[in-house]
Sequence to fold (224 residues):
Amino acid sequence: MSTIAIVGAGPGLGLSIARRFGKEGFTVALVSRSQGRLDDLVGQLEKDGITAAGFAADILDRPALTGALHRATERFGPVDVLEFSPAPKQADDPALTPVSALEVNVENIQQQIDYYVYGAVTAVQAVLPAMIERGSGTLLFTTGASSALVFPQMGNVGIASGALRNWVLALNATLADKGVYATHVPLATWIGQGGPETQPDTIAETYWDLYIKRDEAERLYSTL
Ligand SMILES: NC(=O)c1ccc[n+]([C@@H]2O[C@H](COP(=O)([O-])OP(=O)(O)OC[C@H]3O[C@@H](n4cnc5c(N)ncnc54)[C@H](OP(=O)(O)O)[C@@H]3O)[C@@H](O)[C@H]2O)c1
Fold:
């Protein structure tokens, strides 16, 4: 049975991606900060007959994130698909508040870099060596649209998520001959706040489609 690990798993897109891959027979490992919230998501997946478990970790705590992915591997076997889509909540994470291009300073970039770049690098390091050894695997990354498009009000977020995007595009090129596929989805939408095209279950189809076709380094998902 194949396993997908979703880093930054919540009730929106994370749960929908979990369901989409679970429906295809994947076992699901969920990573976010609260074991209680993870257990609730696992319960929802189990109702759909999907095998899932939650491994609590904060992506800003790199040893904890590595540990969570190692525990997922111990429980379910190697991770076949890593999906990275944490969504900061400003109330919980004031240091991650977006600032405009004019307000950017070293301090308000640093936490965004920790979150997007160091978080993703840590997650990838926990699973990629085994993927390369097996000659198969998929790395899916999600960011907001400021990673790829100009949103002046998202100055610090755009710097960090744009750096993550650049790395994913480089991974895509570098891993092509190693059987591992890396791709990036910049989301230019407000999830769940519009018509069917904004609903997380609809957006999750994009991830399954990318996983199956494996021929795009990036797919912009835009409803704006
Ligand atoms: N929502 C939107 O309108 C929108 C728009 C554009 C792009 N996006 C992107 O789309 C993706 C999914 O968004 P979504 O809103 O649907 O999110 P979601 O999948 O419902 O939840 C994401 C989860 O990330 C977890 N998280 C936040 N900070 C974390 C941390 N430091 N360590 C570990 N986990 C953390 C949170 O859970 P805990 O609090 O329990 O840790 C949250 O529930 C994200 O990449 C987001 O940036 C969203």
In short: The pocket of NAP is lined by residues 8-14, 32-34, 37, 58-60, 85-88, 142, 144, 187, 190-191, 200 (CB under 6 Å). The domain at 3-222 is CATH 3.40.50.720 (Rossmann fold). The chain has a mean pLDDT of 97. Residues 63 and 122 are 8 Å apart (CA to CA).
